[in-house]
Automatic annotation (TrEMBL):
Domain ACT: 204-281
Biological or metabolic pathway of the protein: Amino-acid biosynthesis; L-phenylalanine biosynthesis; phenylpyruvate from prephenate: step 1/1
Pfam families: ACT (PF01842), PDT (PF00800)
Key words of the record: Amino-acid biosynthesis, Aromatic amino acid biosynthesis, Lyase, Phenylalanine biosynthesis
The keyword Membrane belongs to this UniProt entry's keyword annotation: no
Protein's recorded name: Prephenate dehydratase
Organism phylogeny: Bacteria, Bacillati, Actinomycetota, Actinomycetes, Micrococcales
Gene: pheA
PROSITE patterns documented for this protein: ACT, PREPHENATE_DEHYDR_3
CDD domains hit by this protein: ACT_CM-PDT, PBP2_Aa-PDT_like
Annotated ranges, domain Prephenate dehydratase: 10-189
EC number: 4.2.1.51
Organism: Microcella daejeonensis
One GO cellular component, as annotated: cytoplasm
GO biological process: L-phenylalanine biosynthetic process
Positions bearing the site annotation: Essential for prephenate dehydratase activity: 182
């Protein structure tokens, strides 16, 4: 059941307060003054949206170091009716914290979100080569777990965590890549499309129709022959049989762009298993450069030309 029209809108995010997802949600103007609901995982966030508990959910979908977030990609592929309505970028850096009185030499086990843990391997292998790892639901949850449990002596957390919790800083800037960025998307059940801006992205999920030779090439040709660039192409197992994969794809452009719309039509003819996730403004607001032969007017002229042939009009 959806929330009452006059109720305060609710936005879900991977909590608690202070996570990178929380930072991403702070970039959404519509979320200012709304109620924010911290959840434990992507599945819970999307269930909030599907059930109507939340109008939208902020979830991580891609990292510049680790690539696509598989839990998010798999959830979007299996839950119909969701739309991405915006994307947001958050610079990512990490610190190592412990309980007061802890020294780096005392650390045997580290609590960390799996994605954060993967991004700090170089530091961990050089400074704590024999450590163990306890997975946590979020970066902030990893840090706060030190105050309620003795399973770990330290945690990987966001910078500034010691401003909110009585923890001791053990090391700063422990991430492998100082320029790491995580891409977040705001997901809703809204079917309306954001207006195209010229700096847009379209996200889809596609399954090949069968495993005949050349099928992947055929799929890619739907974009290449229409001048549509892919900014993301990742495969994920479908799960029903060994060797079966679906493809998560981001396209440069909006579905209202003629070249993108034509590519999606060709893709749908090629494979009936196409899921449209949305067209939305790029977070970096970088304008898409389109070769003149793939401009909207070229597609429009071609359709008018064919329409004239079919209707028996003489060619000019």
């Amino acid at each position: 059941m959806s929330a009452a029209p006059d109720a305060t809108p609710v936005y879900s995010y991977l909590g608690p307060v202070g996570t990178f997802t929380w930072e991403a949600l702070r970039q959404v103007p519509e979320a200012e003054g709304a109620a924010w609901r911290g959840v434990s995982n992507v599945g819970e966030a999307l269930d909030d949206v599907m059930s109507g508990r939340s109008v939208a959910a902020m979830i991580a979908i891609e990292n510049s170091v680790e690539g696509g977030v598989s839990a998010t990609q798999d959830a979007l592929a299996t839950i119909p009716g969701l739309r991405i309505i915006g994307e947001y970028l958050v610079p990512v850096s990490f610190v190592l914290v412990g309980r007061p009185g802890t020294a780096l030499a005392d650390v045997r086990v580290i609590a960390a979100h799996p994605v954060a843990y993967a991004q700090c391997r170089r530091f961990l292998e050089s400074q704590l080569p024999t450590h163990g790892h306890v997975p946590a639901a979020s970066n902030v949850a990893a840090a706060t777990s030190l105050l309620s449990s003795e399973l770990a002596e330290a945690a990987i957390a966001p910078p500034g965590i010691t401003d909110h919790h009585p923890l001791q800083l053990l090391a700063e800037n422990i991430g492998d890549n100082p320029n790491a960025v995580t891409r977040f998307v705001l997901v809703s059940r809204t079917l309306g499309l954001p207006e195209r801006t010229g700096a847009d992205k379209t996200s889809i999920i596609v399954e090949l129709p069968d495993d005949a030779p050349g099928r992947l090439l055929e799929m890619l040709e739907q974009f290449a022959t229409r001048g549509v660039n892919m900014s993301l192409l990742e495969s994920r197992p479908i799960g029903d049989a060994l060797g079966r994969y679906r493809f998560v794809i981001d396209l440069d452009g909006h579905v209202h762009d003629e070249r993108v719309a034509d590519a999606l039509l060709g893709l749908k003819r090629f494979s009936p298993a196409v899921m449209f996730l949305g067209s939305y403004p790029r977070a970096d607001r970088q304008q898409i450069e389109v070769v003149s032969q793939y401009g909207d007017d070229v597609f429009t002229d071609a359709r008018d030309w064919l329409r004239g042939i079919l209707s028996g009009e003489p060619e000019a």
